[in-house]
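Field reference: sequence -> structure
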Amino acid sequence: MSWSLPPLLHHLPPYLQHAILLLSPALFALALIAVKRRLRSCEADTSLAQSVSKARATPPSRIFNRSTHEPPSRTTHGEPSDRERDRDPNMLERVKQPYDAFLVLDVEATCVQGAGFDYPNEIIEWPVVLLRWRDKDFKGKARELEVVDEFRSFVRPTWRPQLSPFCSALTGITQEQVDSAPSFPEVLDRFRRFLEKHGLTDPQSGRRLTRFCFCTDGPYDIRDFVVKQCFISKIPVPVWLTWDVMDVRRSVGEWHAFATADADRGADHRPAGAFPLPRRVTLSIPRQLHALGLEPFEGRQHSGIDDTRNIARLVIELARRGWKLQPNTSINPNRRWPWMGRRGRVLEEYYP
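Structure field:
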């Protein structure tokens, strides 16, 4: 193809005419490439619009991956897709979880009718459910907890060995069960071996090998009952019992307050499972299960192992909903009550 200048450019100097003639083929080629790219972009936009219109007209149940015959509900990294999150408000992204294991504990202790929390309770049941992450990634993000193991032992009281009728009726624990049980120091020794078996503490030094957190219903189990029992048993509170403790009742209350913060949303916009609760009521385990939309309490209330298993259900559900599980309760191993005398002696004048 030969190129010639239009008549309007003949008045230009010869060197400019020569330069224009040299550059004209290149400029024409660039313009042609730009036009082709624009045409391809328009075709892609049209195709995308047609696909979106078709997808909107197709019921969700009929959208599937032809190679796997499964709904495309997950991304390649296992996270819920945007479409899945839109369908279920509870499908939250995995959050970074600072702890690797959770020891759910709900002790049962001696009691008499009418006595308050200052009573010198002795632990008579020590049940624990161990939870670990099933899906924790290298960034520390996770949502799925599973039960790994359980530990349970009755404990023989020493200050007041005879259980009150009120205590037996409340807990379901019989006198025969505690009479044949080991003492509290012996139970702690067995539980220490349980921790070592699962790689939580070092058998030689006792130091923590992985980050674990105790989970209790309210602050009382370790803050009050364990500290009292260690005083009566004349032993120090084990250091691994004072590290990190999460009050599950408090965490459920915080989650529920967060999930129902907008009072104007109404039932249609309330996150699934965020059921309304009466104000200024104690969040018992059954009420917590209701607040999270879980099935009712399983087992016998005030049975230590059954309480512990239901609290574990709460912890698992909080994790599934993307709630960060972390300590919220401080423990003072040197706490004292008026009935505490010297060297583990209970002053009888307080509770004759």
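Note: Residues 14-57 form the longest helix (44 residues).
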